[in-house]
Every structure is written in C-alpha cells, then in structure tokens.
Amino acid sequence: MTGLLLEGGGMRAGFVAGALMALMDCGLVGFHIAIAVSASVPTLAYFASRQRNEMEMVWRNELHSPNLVCYRNIPETFFFLRNKKPVLDIHYLVYEIFKNKYPLDIKNLLSSPTSCYFTITKVSEGQSVFLTPWDEDIYAIFEAALAVPGCYPKPTYLGEEEFMDGGISNPLPFHFLLEKNVNKILAILSTPVDYEYQPLNFIEKALLWRYLNRNQWILRRLNETGQIYRKEKSLLKQYSEKDLPSVLIVCPDKMPPARFITRDRKKINQTIDLGYKKAQDRMSKIHSFLSQGGET
C-alpha cells in the first residue's frame, strides 16, 4: 500500500503542486491512497484525474488574481464581517476557475486507482472529516476545504452541516494513513521539516478579533491544532528516520517565497518551481522508495 500525504498552507502549497507535476512528468502517479488538506485539496483532485496542464495553469495564472485575493475588502471582511466581500473569494475560485475555466474531469477522478480523501473541519464538533469524491458534489467539497475562517467568512454547508478549512482541525493528518495500513508514504510538505505551527500573532488577532469574538471555539481549536501538528510532524520524522523507513518527506529547505496569501505572481511561480526542482532532484530516491511498496 502506497500513500500520498499533501500539506496545505495557502499559496505556499504551490510547492506541493510543483512536486506533483514532477511526479506526473516521471509517471509516478499510481498511489493507492492519498489525502490532502486545504489548498492541496483541488491539487490532489487534478493529480488523480491526470490533469497536469490544468493544475499548472491554475497555479501559475489564476491565484494571483485580484478577483481571488481582494485586499480592498479587508476592512469590510475583518471589521464588519460582511460575507459578500471576502479577502479570499473562494466561491470565485471554485466555480469560475475550477468548474468553468479549467473543469475537473470528474469521470477520471471517480475512476482513478487512487482513493482520494479531502480533509475538512466540521464546525459543530470542531473535528476533522475525511471525504471522498463520492460523498458530496466535488465543488462543494472544494469550497468547504478552502473556507479559511475570517478570510472567507461565508458559511459553507454540505447538506445541513457547516464545514470549513480542514487545516483548522488537523493540518497534517498522518495518522489517517497509518490507520489505513499504508506501509509506504510519500509526504509532500509546504513547510520545512523542522517548521513548527505558528499561532496567530498580535496583528492577526487584532484583525480577526470581531470574527473570533463571534466564533471563540476557533481560537481554542487553533491552540489544540498546534499541538496536533507538532505530534503528527514529529511522528512523520520518526517514521522517515527508521532503518527501513516507511515515510519519505519532500519539503522545502526553508519557507517558500510565497506565504499564505499573496498576489505576487513571481513568488507563487518561484514556489511552484522550487517544489518541482526538489522532487526532480529526489526522483531516483522517490522511485526506489515507492517501488518497494507497490506499483507506481
């Protein structure tokens, strides 16, 4: 059983996209199970449906758009909590870009040999939920998986339940793959291996205080999430350092040029290129590692 673990992280998840493009160019696509968080959820869907060009076009040409990142909406989003003018217009990204401009090949996704799981957070419980493409409309899953609290304050529902970004509850669900008895896991991270989860700083708390005041569970949950992230990453490193490792980590040596939110196209493209080159440089090791656990 071979598994693929994809970290999110907003625009810095371009590193993950670049690494996946390198895998696709080398024909390393036959994972048995894959799980993604946040910004890497649509990327995984394009990977599983074998739409490499669409994945690249989205990352290189669409994510810097002012239609997506709306700095002018910061006052109304953060201070007045108006849902129609978010800082990150996820609805635009999902329905104008993913659905209309670069439509996902849902037939290919559903017939993919890779069982895909997408991480989202169930608001009523503050817990992670792992959905497959069969569970709900794929674009509704995308919107929920990308719904960053505060930046996209519009409530996102699947059925009658409200959901939001899976990174709120678990940014790195390594345990999920262990519970599926996966014995070879390629983990593609958007942060260095020694990076520690950072809580909200003073400025972020100041900007989000009205939103967090209405949703105090999120701040509590983020503190717990920091502990979960540290445990998951520590365990990931332990498994990668065994004499016969069951985990291979591909990650940047330092924080990528693109951070969580940016409209700097150059930095986004540099981050994608960084991921591509890192995976390409380690391709021989990746191929050797995966070939011991099953066909790739």
Describe this structure in words.
The chain has helices at residues 14-25, 40-48, 52-61, 74-80, 90-101, 106-110, 138-146, 174-179, 202-214, 216-240, 265-281, 283-291; strands at 2-6, 33-37, 115-122, 127-131, 156-158, 161-165, 184-188, 247-250. Helices cover 45% and strands 14% of the residues. The protein contains 12 helices and 8 strands. It is an alpha/beta fold and 296 residues long. Strands 1, 2, 3, 4, 5, 6, 7 and 8 form an 8-stranded mixed beta sheet that branches. The mean pLDDT is 89. Helix 1 (14-25) crosses helix 11.
Give a quick rundown of the structure.
The chain has helices spanning 14-25, 40-48, 52-61, 74-80, 90-101, 106-110, 138-146, 174-179, 202-214, 216-240, 265-281, 283-291, and strands spanning 2-6, 33-37, 115-122, 127-131, 156-158, 161-165, 184-188, 247-250.
Helix percent reads 40-55%
The number of distinct β-strands equals 8
Instruction: Characterize the largest beta sheet: strand count, sense, and whether it forms a barrel.
Output: 8 strands, mixed
What fraction of the residues are assigned to beta strands by DSSP? 5-15%
N-to-C SSE series?
Answer: EHEHHHHHEEHEEHEHHEHH
Radius of gyration: 18 Å
The general outline is globular
Could you tell me how far the N terminus lies from the C terminus, measured between alpha carbons in angstroms? 10 Å
Mean pLDDT: 89
Number of contiguous helices: 12
Kindly name the structural category.
Answer: alpha/beta
Ranges with pLDDT <50 over ≥5 residues? Answer: none
